[in-house]
Specification:
Layout lengths: L5 H14 L11 H64 L3 H7 L5 E10 L2 E10 L14 H110 L16
Antiparallel strand pairs: 1-2
Helix pairs in contact: 2-4
């Protein structure tokens, strides 16, 4: 209240300000600021909800990618073992074919194509292999061991496809890991910093506005009390003044000199 001393009033204001413990935005409390803070709090809560859903979607994709990586790496060991066995069989059946392969290697037949997948706003790179032109190694091993060479080539193609798929999964794994870290950091920042700051600011504004309303109510009440006292004094003064006027008028009529020219009516005498 306003009747407190300046020191007490200042201490009470400091206590109110410190009462909203926690971080808050330095604003002047008003109805407009309170509305703005509530709108911003609602937006922060909506953003937190969306980022939480994004984090869940990325985590789900991350776990599925990790599962595929483990499966592909398990298969990769068997496939590479089969490749080396096939290469050994081809070398035994057809002899040394390395010079023939090097001479026919004019340009790459198998090429990698890049595609993008969008997962909750995160771009994931996919690698796919496609072949161009005819097979220049069709006649390799024609003299002897042709079937073994063909089987070795098919096994190697399978290994290359598996390696490209594994590279695509590893790239997606790293990208998802970074995206999940950034998203979780944002979610935690909104949940533990932004939203509490808005809530503390709203609580501070409400407390200050309530205190201002109480002070205004107290001020109006004191003004009304003073007006009542002033009206009572004015009424008493007017009543006293009216009594004085009546008394002075009566005394003036009593003390006035008699006019001899006026005819007076004497009272009748009863015998």
């Amino acid at each position: 209240p306003r009747h407190d001393s300046n020191k007490q009033w200042y201490q009470r204001r400091v206590a109110i300000t410190a009462g909203g413990s926690g971080d808050k935005i330095n604003v002047f409390p008003s109805r407009m600021i309170l509305t703005v803070m509530k709108t911003r709090l609602k937006g922060a809560q909506k953003g937190h909800s969306l980022l939480k859903k994004k984090s869940d979607a990325l985590t789900l994709k991350f776990r599925a990618t990790l599962k595929k990586i483990i499966e592909n790496k398990t298969v990769m060991g068997d496939v590479m073992k089969a490749v080396y066995f096939s290469l050994a069989e081809a070398a035994y059946a057809a002899g040394d074919i390395s010079q023939t392969v090097i001479q026919n290697a004019d340009k790459a037949q198998n090429k990698i194509k890049f595609t993008k997948d969008n997962v909750a706003g995160v771009q994931l790179t996919n690698f796919t292999m496609h072949s161009e032109g005819s097979d220049v190694y069709q006649l390799t091993g024609l003299g002897k061991g042709g079937q073994t060479v063909t089987r070795c080539k098919e096994t190697a193609q399978k290994a290359i496809k598996l390696l490209i798929e594994l590279a695509s999964l590893q790239t997606a794994f790293i990208t998802l890991d970074e995206a999940i870290k950034i998203t979780n950091r944002r979610v935690n920042g909104i949940e533990y910093v932004i939203i509490p700051r808005f809530e503390n600011t709203i609580a501070y504004c409400i407390e200050e506005l309530d205190e201002r309303d109480r002070e205004e109510f107290y001020r109006l009440k004191k003004v009304q009390d003073k007006k009542k006292v002033i009206r009572a004094k004015q009424k008493k003064f007017l009543e006293e003044y009216a009594l004085k006027e009546e008394a002075s008028a009566a005394s003036a009529l009593t003390d006035a000199p008699r006019n001899l020219l006026e005819t007076e009516h004497d009272p009748d005498i009863m015998f």
